[in-house]
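Consortium newsletter contribution from the modelling node. Members have asked for a concrete example of what our holo predictions look like. Here is one, prepared for the acetoacetyl-coenzyme A complex that several groups have been discussing at recent meetings.
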Amino acid sequence: MAPAGIKRIGVVGLGAMGAGIAQLAIEAGYETVGREVTAELGNSARDRIAHFLQRKVDKDRMTAAERESALDALSLTTELGAFADCDLVVEAIVEDLAPKRALFAELEGIVRPDAVLATNTSALSVTEIAAATTRPDRVVGLHFFNPAPLMPLVEVVRAELTSDEAVATALGVVERFGKVAVPCHDTPGFVVNRVLIPLLNDCVRVLDESRVEPQALDAAMTSGAAWPMGPCALLDLVGIDVHVHASEALYGRLREPRMAPPPRLVAMRDAGLLGRKAGRGFYSYG
Ligand code: CAA
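And here is the predicted structure:
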């Protein structure tokens, strides 16, 4: 059963996270509208989703008919006006406060009064984003992990003024996505990033202190601590720029030295060594 009243989901921004969230929504049977700034970016996100669904068909985890009907449920737009009929809109745009606040202020003039607005921010304040609207009670955090279709967790973040109804709606959708929901309050980094960001920063400092190579550190953590992937491979997956930005946001709010991005990561970011998406980070990608 769909959570009460939720039939149509909007996703703003179809980068790695937004496309993953849109994939989850169509697989869960929701009509889904995805918005990108250009038709080319939207089409390329749909192609990536179609590819991952095809891999599921190849591996007998989905039928070809299910794939077709999931893809039929996805429509693309470049206009925010297309969200007028959405019951839930999930924002997954650039991780900066000003554009997120501007987007939420615009969205509330478009969606119905009962629609829930969610942000996928990983380290910014959901409360500050919600405060850009006149109805902060219907704003909630829905923090997915990268890659969203594979990672089971979604943090459901209650900002200062979020209503019980908005949290319940978000929890219902996360359950329908087949994910593990962890409801939490709007504290810096929520639950996982509060732990993971300083931990990954420690890992990068260890590279220099222990004078080991990224491959050796990754082997140590996968073989010695049973991590599914090593910290350098994980940073490449997340994106060095995304991680540095999240570290700066957490450091800005908590002032704990371990939150501050290590200079080595800042230098990598400045040099464009952003990880998988740039073809080069700690590792090179063909
Ligand atoms: N979207 C959809 N499907 C995807 C995908 C994606 N981005 N990436 C891979 N897949 C599919 C592919 O079809 C793939 O199968 P094929 O290779 O046969 O096509 C299938 O998933 C399995 O992929 P893998 O073989 O790569 O899977 P794996 O068993 O090696 O697991 C992993 C991959 C789940 C990423 C695993 O390595 C893992 O758990 N790594 C840790 C990831 C992690 O910690 N993420 C959190 C990052 S922190 C974060 O996100 C917080 C933040 O705010 C920044």
